[in-house]
Automatic annotation (TrEMBL):
Its EC number is 3.1.4.46. This is glycerophosphodiester phosphodiesterase. InterPro entries: GP_PDE_dom, PLC-like_Pdiesterase_TIM-brl. Keywords: Glycerol metabolism, Hydrolase, Signal. SUPFAM superfamilies: PLC-like phosphodiesterases. Residues 38-363 form the GP-PDE domain. It comes from Pseudonocardia acidicola.
């Protein structure tokens, strides 16, 4: 299938990205006139302010100016796609406080990692709906914990409906950027994610060239297969340390860093429209955690015709490069704007942000609004 990036919306993004690449100088001088700007992806919604992967988190991200909202997708026992970062839900819901589900606690091996807890594929949607979301990293995001217990685990269909309603209300297209989580694992247990993903996008009228959609995966095989079923943008996620699980299970030891050679990027370009690398692959950090020099990744990816959307940008000291941390502890905010500026100047085409308002403000400081 030819690249779908010829439609109005995503096609416009491609043009923006190419403009950004050519117009953004490698100097200290901020551009004074821009016709394009990188996209802001609300990572798990606005997860810096609300428990991740809740409708409240996605809604806030859109209202803060995010161009896309990002649900991670897993399956229930009855094959419904819901938004959780991983199948295990002990860390992001109150399931441990439900005695009726105590016997569902179990140990599984997923992509070679042993996990203990409760898993979405062992719950029907009706059962999952009796749970409530809670903040994952309460030690860093204490403010978010006041929202614990207020929100359900949303289905992908609900997220798409919210996206449509917010697009109408806000007068701009809010994009959706779903990630298939552990797709090989879900296929292996008879709950493949892809049929439901394609069907949901079809139902929402979003499986069309130019629709405001990117589909992402850390695995390669399902993206290659989806190329023949989806008419939207596809993004190959890349981990700096690990390799795609489907390659590993096939005996292929390549890691993310092994896939970003010019040859590797050219291969990715045969089935995907962009890459979503760990941000450390775009600008490295030294052994002290100090942000150092940009790598060749942005230029190499652009030479292969690929967009570059690195993850994940967060305001708290715990996640910032060492030179941008403030004097406080892990939970204190540091100079997130300095980190954004470094990456925006590196020529990226978009980024995943837990604090979409900060990302939008950082972008506005460097780019003219799109006309
Ligand atoms: O999908 C981009 C980024 O979200 C990948 O990391 O683990 O937060 O899903 P993760
Ligand atoms: Ca994700």
């Amino acid at each position: 299938m030819p690249s779908p990036l010829k439609g109005l919306f995503v096609g416009a993004l491609t043009t923006m990205a190419q403009t950004a690449v050519t117009a953004y100088p490698e100097s200290d001088a901020a551009p004074t006139s821009r016709v394009a700007q990188p996209v802001v992806i609300g990572h798990r919604g606005a997860s810096g302010y609300r428990p991740e992967h809740t409708l409240a988190s996605y809604e806030l991200a859109a209202r803060m100016g995010a161009d896309f909202i990002e649900p991670d997708l897993v399956s229930t026992a009855d094959g419904v796609l819901v938004a959780r970062h991983e199948p295990e839900i002990g860390g992001t819901t109150d399931v441990a406080e439900h005695p009726e589900f105590a016997d569902r606690r179990t140990t599984k091996t997923i992509d070679g990692i042993v996990c203990e807890g409760w898993f979405t594929e062992d719950f029907t949607l009706a059962e999952l709906r009796t749970l409530r979301a809670r903040e994952r990293i309460a030690d860093v995001r204490q403010e978010n914990t006041i929202y614990d217990g207020r929100y359900a685990v949303p289905t992908f269909d609900e997220i798409l409906a919210l996206r449509a309603a917010l697009s109408a209300e806000l007068g701009r297209e809010i994009g959706v950027y779903p990630e298939t989580k552990h797709p090989g694992y879900f296929t292996s247990i008879g709950r493949p994610l892809e049929p439901g993903l394609v069907a949901a996008l079809d139902r929402a009228g979003l499986n069309e060239p130019g629709a405001p959609v990117f589909v992402q995966s850390f695995e390669t095989a399902n993206l290659r297969a989806l190329r023949g079923q989806l008419h939207v943008g596809l993004i190959q996620l890349l981990d700096a340390v690990c390799g795609p699980a489907d390659l590993a299970s096939a005996g292929d030891p390549r890691r993310g860093v092994d896939l970003i050679t010019p040859e590797g990027l050219a291969d990715i370009a045969t089935y995907a429209d962009g890459i979503g690398p760990d941000k450390d692959m775009v600008i490295t950090r030294d052994t002290d955690g100090v942000l150092s020099a940009p790598t060749a990744l942005v230029a190499d990816a652009h030479a292969a015709g690929l967009l570059v959307h690195p993850y994940t940008f967060r305001n708290e000291n715990r996640f910032l490069p060492a030179q941008f941390r403030s004097a406080g502890g892990d939970a204190e905010y540091g100079d997130a704007f300095a980190e954004y500026e470094a990456f925006l100047r590196a020529g990226i085409d978009g980024l995943f942000a837990d604090n979409p308002d900060t990302a939008v403000a950082a972008r506005a400081a460097l780019f003219e609004p799109v006309r």
